[in-house]
Fold these 3 entries.
Entry 1:
Amino acid sequence: MLIESCGEEATLIHTGRSRQDMFTTLNEARLRLAVLDFYEALNKLRTRLLSIARENIETYIPAYTNGVQAMPITLAFYLWGFLESFQRDSDRIIESYKRINQSALGVAVLACSSWPLNRERLAELLGFEKPITNGLDAAQISLFDIPLEAASNAANVAIRIGTLVQDLAQQYSQTRPWLLLDSGAAYGSSAMPQKRNPGILNKTRGTASDVVGAMQTSFLRAHNLQLGMYDNKESVLEDCSGVFVKGVEMLELMEQAFSLLKVNPARSLEELNSDWTTTMALAEALQRQFEIPFRIGHTFASQIVTYARARDLHPDNFPFEAAKEIFGNVTEQLEDKRLPFELTQEEFRTVLSPEHAVQSDVGTGSPAPANVRRGLDEIAIRLEEDEQRLRAWRNALADSDKALDEAFEKLLNNKSQEKKL
């Protein structure tokens, strides 16, 4: 078609080039845009989580280990933990973008050619930071590690999205949940009128699994290939396994789910007070205030729980006299003498309250409200820096597109002037 329109001179367009370096460069450019779209979606989710966390710094909720209530924390502290992990994802994307944003163009098949092409200028015009230096690496080897690194970053995020979804979905198995999505995000059952199924959570979890599966596909397709084969060259892009197409969808669904979040702080506090998640704080208070050995404090707290569960007692109605009796029995058993229980009844109740347990936690990274506020402020600063970086990357690509158009226009004008002369 070009020859028909322009004559044999049109074949000059292929001078010094090969399908190998052109295809590789095209894939690099497509991967670059896919990663930027994924990063933008991740930042939107981070922004949503940060907003919810700041609204729930003193919303007390249970933390779980081994699927069992472990200790009280706050919703803000919980989300802060995920925000820290997503910050590491951001760091990985930033670091990997340096490798993604490099050009293969100009190496022809894999060893350049006799034409003295300016590969640095080609990279600049296409918005790449620089060329991949070695020709073989540029056209053949980089097609393995660079896309696979990017796919791994996306799948890494997907694993924790799945964890977030699991924690949210777990609430739907409770008869009186403290964390739900707006009713508009649920769908009913065709047979059971009482059911409200968390459709968006199920879809998010499935999409996160798609991302992990797509990443694994890309690795398997790259496995045991000799150089120059086609098999893996599009394995992380949308026309093959769709790591980033599914990745963006996953993040958008998760952000939408959190936009529909409904939190019931009174119910979550009730959930904490219905169990014995603060007994570690009781043992620590005895050790810290009265130098009671850890073994005694821990055994005492454990026996309090055993006694309470056998009688359906809770921290707010446990008989104080029974606590004193249990403490005396424990000290007599372990120390061969009955020691007095030195906490007052008011102190005993306070130590067992979730609010006291959280607010008395100290050290960098604790759920104490002051710590959480500082942590969220630091997250906000990093998030703003990351969003500025993303805008700068997109602006740089737009500027390079403009510069490329101007260079072509200048070339065409020069050719026109030459013909006139």
Entry 2:
Amino acid sequence: MRPTRDISLKSKLMLIIMLTSVVALLLASAAFVAYDWVTFRRTVVDDHAILAKIVGGNCAAAITFDDAKSAERTLASLKAEAHLMAACIFTPDNRVFASYVRSDLKGWVPPKPVPSGEFFVDDHLALYRPVIHNGEEIGTVYLQEDLLEMHERLTRYASIGLVVLLISLFAALLLSGWLQRLVSEPIRQLAETVKEVSVDKDYEVRAPKFFGTSREVGTLIDAFNEMLAQIQSRDKALQDSEGHFRSLIENASDIITIIDRDSRLRYVSPSAKRLLDFAPDELIGKIALDYIHADDVKTVSEKLRQVAEAPEGIVSAEYRFRHKDGSWIYLESKARNLLSDPSLAGIIVNSRDVTERKRAEQERREANSQLENALAELKSTQQQVVQQERLRALGQMASGIAHDFNNALAPILGFSELLLD
């Protein structure tokens, strides 16, 4: 079978009409069969419930007087029911009191009695009803009916439905062959014009209107011609824009790259040659993380994961990237998630060289560190000088006190010596 895209519009229209007819007929037939199937099951249950009630009433006296033969004769009359497979009467203690089995059933074993109810089991209906006599339950009637009648009805309906389906398909085929021309022929002519424009890439061509073209197709042709005019105008503008963009990219100071979800480089701007000494072709197809310093890989990987999980999200990072000569340069990058953009389908990264800034920052940190060390030494020296000044002041104070004390003690000593003399 040919792919759907290779089928002509004429064939597609005919196929649509045919499929619509088939689906409609199948749904109607399925609904009818389902309704009949449900109705038939309900009817079978109701009919056999009535039959079980009649059998139970006829056998009530036999059960009361323990006359199994009379009950057997009553059940034997059920052979007039062609689809009745078996019948059985159970006593309250679940003992088989009487039974009837169709002649074609060999080795039939009575089932275990259950409370009143009906069950569709495999290919038959099992129905249980109590035998009531004078308001007292004296036994249970069991009827087993095959479902051949239902199968015959379904087969008959299927045959009728098949015949109706074939006749309907033939009628739909005749009608679709005539009706599709009203739509397909003008569009086929338009398609020829489209093919000519596509092959020659000549957007100055315009699709002509044909005699007998419908209003809708005429509108389509006008819209197509208007579209060609817009494409022609945009194509020229696009060429001018591409030239301008290419010039900007080739002369930009930043590196512009596009990577996929696996961190594989899909595009590298020409400025990579100037900053990294790598030609774009040397990096395209490579894993970007392989060129990042080992100490920065974890941080960059986490940033890429964050931006990949956030549509239209933007993250920034600073890291070391390997130069072609083996040295490391610092790059400051901003990444934006454009994976959902079909024209890019990737993460666009704008990177600039910040090595000089990093070197200046390092030098500033080293200068600050040296300044802090010098300040600490100055403070230590100042503290030592202050301590020495304090000690010298204490020494002078002690000397003065001793001098004053000696001056005060001299008269006393002199007077004491006079007293001794």
Entry 3:
Amino acid sequence: MSSTGKKVAIIGGGVAGLLAAVTAADHGAKVLLFEKMDKVGLKMGITGKGRCNLTNNAPIMDFIAMTPGNGRFLFSAYKRFNNMDLLSLFHTWGLETKVERGGRIFPASDDAQEVRHLFMRLLHEKQVDVHLSEPVLHIQTKKGCAAGVVTGKGTYEADAVILATGGAGRLHYQGFPTSNHYGATADGLVLGYRAGAKLLYPDTLQYHPTGAAYPAQIYGALVTEKVRSVGAMLVNADGEVFMNPLETRDVAAASIIRECTERGKGVKTPAGQAVWLDTPMIELKNGAGTIEKRIPAMMRMFAKHGIDIRKEPILVYPTLHYQNGGLHITADGQTDVENLFAAGEVVGGIHGRNRLMGNSLLDVIVFGRNAGQHAAEKAKSVSVGTLTLDHVAAFEAEKQQAGVTDHRLSPQLLPDYARKIHPAEK
């Protein structure tokens, strides 16, 4: 489709933002993509342990049935674009795929970087104006409608804006480690809420039950469920198996936390507490060579730090993994602020209060495409006038009236890992 000259500004260069950009361009919009990191698609390298679990070939009704509490919300989105449509789209773009046990679909190359490079090529072909290392500080509005963005480098007008900023793991809620990359600092929640968008289930975060608890270099990194599915057991400090290893993520995470706190049976580590994941049990059950064949990425990750998981167990503890809550959207991806759309992990409620594993990439792709299409269509009828940041001033005034005196930088943009000096050291 030829360009309409109408602009769509997309904040965030993860999978949802990339799909939104490609789709909006296909619908005639001139697309500006802002990413605060120096690369796009960073989280793509994490999903499926670096292999990029694209989707599942299960019937759509199975997806709906396994979405706790809010599955019916997905009917309209999946009717427009579902897992088989996604697979067809990737094939059209030239990506070869394969199906593995449980219906999981991966690139035939087993390399997530192939998918990331595919999107980079598409951005170039669609003439998307990509702004790397340029974080967005404010959304501009006109009469209460989103109409542009402000970055540290300038002001950009737009006829529609899409928030696709991802999660919040790097805020380390309650001191938990995280599997998220360094850009996951809840920027979209701050930008959207400040502009007037409503939040849905902001208290619901998913903790992956088995994040690496030792060594420090990989603290919080995912230890995939596959390790437990092939025979590893969760064991406390007394050598007791304390739960079924194949429980759901929320049950498994809660059980590990309880073992380390209420029951006092955790293993002390330099970073806190943990439990053992008895990986040598895998080869005792299934024979020598099973680990290298079935979970080679896990074997390599720990081997880099001198740990042979075939011979010694590993230490794990829950890690912040996914933000289930976020901005409220309608079926077309628009928030409560006119012309402001959202897609991906920044959206709340798509998975209800809890997310089924393996479902996130399908979510961000389906809703990224959905937001891109509808933002481009909406932009055609928008006329941008004088832009303001009045909503920011109004938000600050509301904070003062409510007695909120927190002066932390917001949005935070990057995690704060600077060493804090104890008063006694001054």
